[in-house]
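Course assignment 3, question 2. Fill in each field.
Student: A.L.
Task: Predict the tertiary structure for the chain below.
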Amino acid sequence: MIETSMPETSSPIRQRMREFYETSETYKNLLAAHDEAYLRHYVELVIRYAPPRSKILDLGCGNGISARLLNQAEFDVVGTDISPLFLEEAQDWENPRLRYQVCDVMELPFESESFNVICSNELVEHLPDVETALNEMVRVVCKGGRIVISGPNLCSPLMPLLDWLNLMSGKSGRPVWGETKRQALQQFARNCRLYVQKRFLTKTPHFIYREPDLQADAIGGDADSAY
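Answer field:
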């Protein structure tokens, strides 16, 4: 039985995103592509920085496969996601050293300094308040522990450039970001500007938030990202 610990929230965007992930069968089906081969690099990255016998918290683990792979590497693992729908099949993999819990990364239901390693893959870009989530990760990691975060760089100029090249060759671009050649080029120019700004002109972390697209026909390509 997967544990559930979900706080109330007053943020409209946060509430809409939670409801979307809790109910979207389309999104759940997309997560089927996150198989062992897809997750291998992420899992190997976490293992590289995890001391032997570490207790690991895998945040936003989706279908739960990454947490299962970390458990198979001889770690005690808690895998979490905001959606009980995504974790439905994962409960069959639970054992004394692996459990799953439904919870919100921005209000983690764990005591401070509970885990040796906190990790997440393709999660932070879907959070409407990244700083709060990072502070929660810092709170629950042990002193001297590790936080390992993996994800796409949605501000990279290369992504819309790839959309444009795909469209030029008769393929499709990403929903929302690069559905037409004009849109892909506009996104390329925007991302070039953001890259220069963040790389050379900004001295402190700065999260550029956006309104996530949660329509069923826009799912894919991180259209649901919040920044």
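Instructor remarks: Residues 47 and 73 are 8 Å apart (CA to CA). The chain has two domains: 3-150, 158-218.
Grade: pending
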